[in-house]
Amino acid sequence: MGIFGILILAVSVALDALAVSFSGALIDREHPKEHALIAGVTFGSFQFVMPLIGFLLGKTVTDLISAWEHYAAFALLALVGGNMIFEVLKDDDKDEKISPFHFPAVIVMGIATSMDAMAVGASLAFMNAPVFITASAMGVITMLLSMAAVMLGSFSTKFAIPEKILGCLGGMAVILIGLKVLIEHSLK
Question: If pLDDT is split at 50, 70 and 90, which confidence band does 34 have?
């Protein structure tokens, strides 16, 4: 696999993290630079580590993982997206709402958005492709795209759209990403 193929692969596995980062920024407008760093480092790290894990696990375990990874990714993303909607619609004080960039939520989203990267890593083992270079490209590109998505999402919230609508749209987007994973797997 050449450099162009590696870059295309890296961008394609980063798209879910990009969408989740943008959606998170629609919900939590405060501290966009901090949130961009959190999203970039978290999602980029998972996109770097998961292909390496997949590469090490090899085909035997990957066949088992691929049988359920789409269900797990959907469940995690639906849970996080549902919680995002719930938090936005709660009538509690704004300070008590949980940000999608806080530790448990961002870790769950990092795992959910990088599960396909594990399967990619296993396939790299059978292609004799450079796994470390590919995983590094996946991590760096995911980090940069996630950071840009948070900043763009934070900027887009400056328009006169009510916070509850933006929050619900962000949560629904995360759920739809999980649904997309489920549908794509069933079409294979």
Answer: very high
Give me the number of domains the chain comprises: 1
**Calpha distance 83→77 (Å, rounded):** 10
> Domain of 131?
3-187
**What per-residue confidence (pLDDT) applies to 50?**
93
Nearest to 76 by CA among 113, 102, 45, 103: 113
Residues in CB range of 66: below 8 A, 6 or more apart: 119
Q: Estimate to the nearest angstrom the gap between the alpha carbon of 182 and the chain centroid.
A: 15
- The candidate with the shortest Cα–Cα distance to 25, out of 85, 80, 99, 112, is 99
The residues, ordered by sequence, that sit 6+ positions from 74 with a Cβ below 8 Å of its Cβ are 178, 179, 181, 182
The larger pLDDT score, comparing residue 30 to residue 69, is at 30
- pLDDT tens, 78-105? 877 787 677 767 765 555 566 778 888 8
Q: What is the C-alpha separation between 13 and 95, in angstroms, rounded? A: 34
Q: Which residues of 27-45 are buried (b: 16+ CB within 10 A; e: fewer)?
A: bbbeebeebbbbbbbbbbe
CA distance 98 to 83: 9
Sign of CA dihedral 160, 93, 147, 120: negative
